[in-house]
Amino acid sequence: MQVKDFDYELPKELIAQHPLEPRDHSRLLVVDKGNGKMEHRHFYDLVEYLKQGDLLVFNDTRVIPARLHGYKDTGARVEVFLLTRLNTNDWEVLVKPGRKLRPGAKIKFSEDLSCEIQEVTDFGGRVAHFIFNGIFEEILDRLGETPLPPYITEPLEDKERYQTVYSKERGSAAAPTAGLHFTSELMRKIKDMGIEEVFVTLHVGLGTFRPVSEPTIEDHVMHSEFYTVSKQAADAINAAKLAGRRIVAIGTTSVRTLEAAGASGTMQPGGNWTKIFIYPGYKFRFVDALVTNFHLPQSTLLMLVSALSSRNIMLAAYAVAVQERYRFFSFGDAMFIK
């Protein structure tokens, strides 16, 4: 398959620059994954499409203030973007300007925080060794900025609007945006309906920012991301599958976690790294339905949703969404693929 087969035309003005308030008042395009039938609703109507016995799987990762500004020994201003923590002191990072930050370069952010570039990674990033005086997370909260995707060009007044209401485990470079539509009240309403909710964790990393560079899909290599599934969540997911109950993933990161941790056919508890790449032809083991946002043209996430339904149905749905002036990407509207 060719990457160009997952392209579509998107007017720039449909890229949402601000989140809606309340969170659950965004629009919801409901799509039957088998026949392509569509309905236009609002996100708070999601409860009408859920039923007792469903299991909803949320990703409870929390975005860290990952963008740091500092200075080289020469006085040149540089930016370091934290992606993945490798150990206590080492992080995989993106840097600007990349050409001037080679191994051995030292960067100072404050009296309490500095780093040295150690190596260049396969994906054009760096491994940086941080030296800090105090608790790293507290220093980061003080110095770092919460990153927003490059297509959001306007400032965000309330930084919590780029976090889900159930975010808990710090570590992501970007939010699992399908979850941004949920309010605490909506989640309580779903639970009161007898619908089970469980949480897994996948820390969103470099793959979110990296376009598909190969013309042929099968040649693309995904970047590793770390996930964790608790024993309680694994048991609940396995029980739902065994009973034939519907498993609804909230966001593509939950899909990747479920399918990676359940690659053997049984959900395995614990933590691991995954490079799972899901595109049409993939046979899902655990995911039956999906709540998701609208994704970028030619992106791996558009390929993932096409695998759950079909390329033709998804491109048709996206064409309708453009025609009906839905809002796209991180702060945009949502789809329920059922």
Content-based structural category:
alpha/beta
Q: Kindly estimate the percentage of residues that lie in beta strands according to DSSP.
A: 25-35%
* Low-confidence parts: none
How many domains comprise the coordinates?
2
Task: Identify the overall geometry.
Answer: globular
Radius of gyration: 20 Å
Salient structural properties:
2 domains; alpha/beta; QueA-like; nine-stranded mixed sheet; 17 strands; six-stranded antiparallel beta barrel; 28% strand; Thrombin, subunit H
Describe the protein's topology.
Elements: E1 27-31, E2 38-42, E3 55-59, E4 61-63, E5 67-72, E6 77-85, E7 90-96, E8 106-110, E9 113-120, E10 126-132, H1 136-143, E11 169-172, H2 184-192, E12 196-202, E13 225-229, H3 231-242, E14 247-250, H4 252-261, E15 270-274, E16 289-293, H5 300-308, H6 311-323, E17 334-337
Parallel strand pairs: 1-17, 3-12, 3-14, 4-11, 14-16
Antiparallel strand pairs: 1-2, 5-6, 5-8, 6-7, 7-10, 8-9, 9-10, 12-13, 13-15, 16-17
Helix pairs in contact: 5-6
